[in-house]
Fold these 2 entries.
Entry 1:
Amino acid sequence: MAEAAQGFIRAPPHYNVRMAVQLDRQARLKLAELALSGDKPARDRLLDDLRPRLFRFIMRHVGDHDLAEEITQESLVRIFEKFDAVRAPAAFDGWAFQVASNILRDHFRRARRDEHLRGKLQLLEWGEA
């Protein structure tokens, strides 16, 4: 299922985040209502609309385009997989951004841990020299 999800939400190579047409809040709410009732095209459109907004949010936190794309993709896959967890259409945006925030938090935790382990490895290597 994750492969299907990734194929569905991966932006085409020519996709330009800045040129994506954004829906207004009312249109997103209506799409969320339809999507949560099982309308797959509405879910697809809702996720398409979410992608550039999530990307901008993530980019502000990481400052690296490639990393922001990677975390955006991971967030969208998780949102796709857990879509049924949304309880109310009005809660979709907040829920989706919370998913992305959790993934960002995990990324920073891993990066800190990896940096700490690299430091310990360097100390061990210096001790052997």
Note: Residues 1-8, 12-20 have pLDDT under 50 and may be disordered.
Entry 2:
Amino acid sequence: MARCMVFACGLPLSFWGDAVQYAAYILNRAPTNANPGRASPLKILTKQTPQLGKIVVFGSSCTVQRDPTNKNFSQRAQQGMIIGIGEEVKGYRVYLPKDKKVVTSQHVQNIETLNKTQNLHVQRLYQDRDSAEAEQESREQGSGAANQGSAGKENGTKVRRKVRKKSSKKKTWTRERHGPRNYKEAMHSQSKVGRMKAMVEELKALEGNSVWEQTFGVNYSVTFAAVIDMTCVKLILVLARKWRVPAKHGDVPNAYVKADKEEDLWIYIRVPQGMKVSEEILKELGVETDAKVALELKKALYGLKQAGRLWSKLLHAKLEEIGFHQSLVDMCVYYRYKAGVLIVVGVYVDDLL
């Protein structure tokens, strides 16, 4: 399906990822014979009938408004091609051939594969929410003016208030990102429930490991975690496709435990639950119970602030030992060229690509 979508609209093969993503968007909302009542996969998952009014032909020509409120004598719209629908940000994902970039915008008009009525319907889908917000803002401004007017009458003075139009400079008509950048945007995204659940699980993990009980300079000194840039991940996948070799992914089991702790820091822990100290050792130490015993940590553990950095140092040393070199562009990318064979490795904490 994705192959036909790319070839039918005439876009280059570099848009195969967008075609696959849009094809998955359509198939998840399309009726399926394998499900009871030919229900779509999305309906089975969410128990709600998906809306199909936003789906248009992949690669449809359209015009994108830059800023509808701009009154300057400049170009207000630009020609583009629809290559998908935004996930976190509402609107169509549009490729602008002139600027050679992809933007996400709600202000898309003149879609060539739709007639005039259908174009108006698509615009209303995105304008309903904007109209509701604008109406609420006007009510707030009106109530503020009424309060000021009544206060002026009580003081015996006539108040004349000029209503100013709200500046539109803060409005964003096109967006190039696909995910929320902060907590506020995450709470207004479609994946709000999943993100809240992930935050709660992360806090429980930190609480269980007592991470915040560590003191800087006493229990740890420097923190770091190797996280490869997504651009480099895409580069590795493109190289694998070009060379026609499979891109392999591996996870290092118990990676943090393999690294030694910092030599100049002494870290002590309580006896973990489920473990018992032998009576001989208790007598040797001169204590009666395990509660009075402290264990010296020899290896890094998950939950320690410096564990990620210690593991990164160990992995860096091992890769250099077998002939790999660290990239100057991204320190999480390593490469080795030997006997005419180039091997590229990307590091994401304890995952290797």
Note: DSSP finds nine helices and 13 strands in the chain.
